[in-house]
Amino acid sequence: MKKQRAQSTILKILSLGTAMSLTCAVWADEFTQEDLQRWNQEFMAAVKTGDKLFHGGLGNANTVSCDQCHPNGANTHPETYPKFQQQLGKVVTIGEMINWCIQNPLEGKPLALDDPKMVALQAYIYWERRNVPLQPGKH
Amino acid sequence: MKKLNRRQFIQRSGAFVAAASLPVSLVEIAFGKDHPQNFTFGFISDSHITHIKGKEFVRNWDQGLKRAVAEANLMDPKPDFIVYGGDLAQLGKPEEIDHALDMLSGLRAPVKYVMGEHDYYVDLGAHWRKRLGPDHYSFDHKGVHFIVLNSILTYKDWMHKNWKTGMDRMKQMARLDNPNGSPFMVGEEQRRWMKKDLAGVAHDTPVVVLSHSPLQKIYKGWNFWTEDAEKIHALLKPYKKATVLYGHVHQIQYNQIDNISFHSVMATAWPWPYPASYAQGVSHIPKLTVPMNRADPFFERDATGWQFINLHSGKVDLNYVLWENNKNRVVRFDPDKGHPVDTEYQDPAKRIPPQEHY
Ligand SMILES: [Fe+2]
Ligand SMILES: [Fe+2]
């Protein structure tokens, strides 16, 4: 009993300590298969949400959806961003281009760049484009 | 519903500007008096008119169809008829089909209609047929035999699955990249009809088949596909001059399989990417095809348009009237090569950067 209590106290102290960089450094690469699985599930959940938003889930009034021009996210070229978007006259991220689409063909309201919906849309688009080499700046 | 007269149509679609760019001279050359059998027809397709609510429709798609109608009316000499290649509507709603036909009623030529999947899957084509008649038929024009097929049917068990509503089924089929979709087909019944129809047609008669799906197997994932394509090819085998014209793909495609030339037409609504640009898919886009330019989304009508077709000596010259940044294209049957060629870009050395799709 006594020994167990002592151990749990140590654990409590250790877990408090995770906020400190020293302890973190020691634990940084100590993740398990289960961790990996869970993190992947979290990511794939975002892909799934993005998939739904992309296929008519954005609730924009004119009902036009992303997949009408981009089946399977094709022709969005996430691997080329950031790039000089010649029509906008500046270098932009894919999030800014997604907002352009939402505002124009979809006649909807733009999303904040850290809106979970924006993140999910990007998770879906990148997932459909997986294994394609990065080509930032390519037109 | 209010019909627009010709002048209203032209005014509303800004067609005066476009008129200057129509390659009308090509038509005149082919219309020489010594070839009375030569003729031209227009081809408009895939307008995807979308009802929002009440009297509201998606403006963008309305604009495409209005512009095609206005420009087709400016063809000189006049086309003998216009073919509409399918997908009048987005979700097959009566409001959508009626609104599309209202706009098309401004055309100054008779129209031959082809059924698209977006017109069909909500009520299995009932409203479309009520407005337009049978979905498969044939007709003869100046020595050419035309066959219209409903090629967007599918397996009966998918069609008659336990759908909650017809709209449920429509929405599944309307999604191009739906992993739970079902492949297009002409089906046995129509193939039997087509065989009977062709029985009286001499083998040296030019035959043109009008369908919505490609009557080829290009990419199943997006239904650029017809399950019984080879069986249709077999029916056309005895004909020296056979051509298939199809919609659905919203992009330039052309091909030659044995005796049959294949040509797709553009949408008036929006362009689709080539299947090869989907990194996880396997596509069989015809090697012959020189792609359309990549669309610039900032130009609403870029990579959409309509076409006029010149049927000289029974084979096709396909003239793509393309809007905004895409220059007009002409794909013509080359009797020496025995297949269609792009008159400007067929030689790989002549191709331009916007034709690279990735
Ligand atoms: Fe279509
Ligand atoms: Fe279609």
Which keywords apply here?
heterodimer, A: 139 residues, mainly alpha, 5 helices, 51% helix, globular, B: 358 residues, alpha/beta, Purple Acid Phosphatase, chain A, domain 2, disordered N terminus, binds fe (ii) ion
Instruction: Write the element-wise H/E pattern of chain B from the N-terminal end onward.
Output: HHHEEEHEHEHHEEHHHEEEHEEEEEEE
What small molecules does the structure contain? fe (ii) ion
Taken from the alpha-carbon principal axes, the silhouette of chain B is globular
Question: Mind telling me which CATH architecture of the domain at 36-128 in chain A this is?
Answer: Orthogonal Bundle
**How much strand of chain B?**
15-25%
Total number of helical segments of chain A? 5
Overall pLDDT score of chain B: 91
The residue fraction in helices of chain A comes out at: 40-55%
Q: Quote the beta fraction of chain A.
A: under 5%
Describe this structure in words.
Chain A is built from five helices and two strands; from the N terminus they run αααββαα. By secondary structure, chain A is mainly alpha-helical. Chain A has a domain at 36-128: Cytochrome Bc1 Complex, Chain D, domain 2 (Orthogonal Bundle). Chain A has a two-stranded antiparallel sheet. In chain A, helix 3 packs across helix 5. The radius of gyration of chain A is 21 Å and the shape is globular. Chain A starts with a helix and ends in an 11-residue tail after the last helix. Chain B has a seven-stranded mixed sheet with strand order 5-4-1-14-15-16-17. A six-stranded mixed sheet of chain B has the order 6-7-8-11-13-12, with no helix packed on it. In chain B, strands 2-3 form a two-stranded antiparallel ribbon. By secondary structure, chain B is α/β, with parallel strands linked by helices. Classes of the chains: A mainly alpha (139), B alpha/beta (358). The interface between A and B is medium-sized, with 24 and 29 residues. The complex binds fe (ii) ion (FE2) (2 copies). Residues 46, 48, 87, 116, 248, 250, 267 of chain B line the site of one fe (ii) ion (FE2).
